[in-house]
Amino acid sequence: MPFVTSGGAGSTGDDDTTGPGPGSTPGSGPVPSSAASDLVAARRQLLAHSDAAQRDDAAGLRQVLVDLHDFWLTTKGAELGIRPDSGFAIVAVGGLGRQELLPHSDLDLILLHDDMDPARVAEVADGLWYPLWDAHIKLDHSVRTVSQALQVASQDMSAALGLLEARHIAGDESLSALLISGVRRQWRTDIRTRFPQLVESARDRWRRSGDIAHRAEPDLKNGRGGLRDVQMLGALAAAQLTDGMGTLRPDSPGAGLQTAYGRLLDIRTELHRIAGRPREQLRAQDADEIGAALRIGDRFDLARVISDSARTIGYSVDVGLRTAGNALPRRGLAKLRRSPVRRPLDEGVVEHAGEVVLARNAIPSKDPGLILRVAAASARTGLPMSASTLARLADHAPELREPWPAEALSDLLVLLGTGRHMVAPIEALDRTGLWGRLLPEWGAVRDLPPRDPVHTWTVDRHLVGTAVYASTMTTRVSRPDLLVLGALLHDLGKGRGADHSVVGAELATQIGNRFGLWPQDVATLSAMVRHHLLLPVTATRRDPDDPATTQFVVDTLGGDRVLLELLAALAEADSLATGPGVWGDWKSSLVSELVRRCLRVMDGEELHRPDPLTDEQRARAEAGGVHVDIASVPGSHTRVVTVIAPDGPGLLSTTSGVLALNGLRCHTAMVQSHAGSVVNTFRVIPAFGDPPDPGLLRQQVLQATAGTLDVIRRLDKREAESPVPVASPPEDGTPVAVPALFAMAPPRVLWIDADPTAGSGPVLELRAADRIGLLSRVSAVLERHGVDIVWAMVETLGGTVVDTFCLRLPDDSPARRSELADAVIAVVPPPEPPRETETPAPTADSARGGVPGA
């Protein structure tokens, strides 16, 4: 395959494409016999057929053009004495060198000579170049010895990349072989110092030309995900740093790198033929004709093919550059560096050499949830998933059983709660076919171009972008898990030929049951998808002052306050992810006012209380002493830890802190009291390996209670040593470390007044991002302020916690509540500061999801 073995992008001018030779390739049509004497007439004749039945297809046309020019150059060279052992050779680079010559490509040629007499060299060069100039054929040429060409290649990156594609055409083949082998040997030798320049030149090109997958009029050659990127992978393969093909399977979306490259090459060939001149940017007015010529369909079908191919190439480039960077040869003291340390990230998941990989004892064939754990670890840390790990998961990981285990859903929620950091892992899963394995319904919207020009992105990237924005609003709602799930699924019904809200609601029910949600949560998720347009449409198209408008919304939602707040957040996230200017002050004020009026109509708020204790828990509490018990949840990694101990100050902080110190991530917790003892029940997941022995936990609880174990100090040390930096990659892909304690959404503290007849105090509800030992830290703050915790209910939903504490305050006043809220907020992760150019979803400088003329 030329683009794998030949090297980087074209060097000495416009690079291009391929085709069959004069009357030699079956099915391509004969080349006129006048080709040797009239090259221009032959080219015109090839492009003159307007009847699709008579003209060559894109690949056939490229091959005919290559063989036509090869024939002409060989014949003309023979006339000039350029024969074997003549000391002269004609070498092609660029499109002709790769055998990928487009209808209006430049000819990139080198006349090599073996240090011949200058007069003879000038005579041969003039005899070769002047006929081409006289024929008005665009020509980029040079005349050099082998040593001169190698010297230029050592100093000029473009020249080096072009010579990596060099191909012998005519004359002294040993002279051409000397150049080709020499430039490849020189490239491999110098790659350590030239690699940074190669990467920087690619990034400059991407900044100028944008992302092909998300441009209305993409540059097929120079844009990110374009033809030059595949040629760059070829250059890295020539340096023996990558295999040039990535690790995509043929059944992955895009069908692998070779197929994606061929599709873009065919589109670019037809663009040249239709435009009648060299053009790299696909314009809207040409899209329908190109789609018809290639039998793809209309401009929307063409846009989908372009997006799919460009994203496949873009992913392969990411993997290729990362692999090449890690494979660069070491010199000097760098050779003495110790091998990278494998650091645990999750059960079966470790970090190695800056990538997320599988632990040595991980068995993908027996662990269906491993895919999501790997993706969640990647999003949390900002480290890319190893291509070999993804390939291994694609080959061996089984389907998740239905309904999903609770840990799998939790890992999905963690992934969806990481804001813009989720985009890269989801894209990697999607390109390798793993995302479609988790969500088979995704295939209908993958690379689906929007029909409405107000939409910036393809439907699948819009869904991911909506989840990105929704993750910054999780503390606004009481069910952050349903918010991010609804954001991910709300437009999943598109592309199916019916009302996408109705179809999507049915799909959401199906998916919610697969995820293992409770029936009432499935109903809420389905209602979110069914009514995700209700608030913005009603607020902007009906009279907000008419009581019937408010009553209509309340009746439609069945008076469900939780659903109303979820739809309000989803409406904003959906609008922000649609495109610039869709969500503004006017629309925001209308929707907010409508929500406020609906809440007035709806009745109060239900106060949740914990379930009663079991008989066994009551008996142990009455017996006194400290009891620690760990029970397994069948079929999962989850454990239930019960700690019963005499009541005293700081007990909740110490017990929850001890669990965190032992790598037990708390997902839910319930704190109750009976007969002078506290019964703390924690539902936990070990971060790595098996949980500790209950006896060890009991001993540490006793030490912490006695003051000989400083839990908070140990937690701070553990957090500082945690290998979980959140990376915030900018558009050019360079990882930028961001402190791990930043949250996607700002924390919130809500106060709920309890029923006075119940004899309990007010309820504090904390909504914030999770961190190591958060429950221990928050409860320690409350206890330091002299507050008694009557009961507590703790739940971790993805990366967001919703912790509810029923408190007994010695002085219940607004000032006291404000002081407590400030103290609690001080120990939770603050919201992540915006970057200089904030791009939660893919950048907003592109237009309409790569749809020409959408």
TrEMBL record:
Recite the UniProt keywords alphabetically: Hydrolase, Magnesium, Multifunctional enzyme, Nucleotidyltransferase, Repeat, Transferase
Domain (HD): residue spans on this chain:
459-573
Write down the InterPro entries for this protein, in alphabetical order.
ACT-like_dom_sf (IPR045865), ACT_dom (IPR002912), HD/PDEase_dom (IPR003607), HD_domain (IPR006674), NT_sf (IPR043519), PII_UdlTrfase/GS_AdlTrfase (IPR013546), UTase/UR (IPR010043)
Top-rank taxon, per record? Bacteria
Extract the ranges annotated as region (Uridylyltransferase): 1-344
Question: By its UniProt entry, which PROSITE patterns does this protein fall under?
Answer: ACT (PS51671), HD (PS51831)
Q: Which reaction does it catalyse?
A: [protein-PII]-uridylyl-L-tyrosine + H2O = [protein-PII]-L-tyrosine + UMP + H(+); [protein-PII]-L-tyrosine + UTP = [protein-PII]-uridylyl-L-tyrosine + diphosphate
Report the protein name in the record: Bifunctional uridylyltransferase/uridylyl-removing enzyme
What is the source species?
Williamsia serinedens
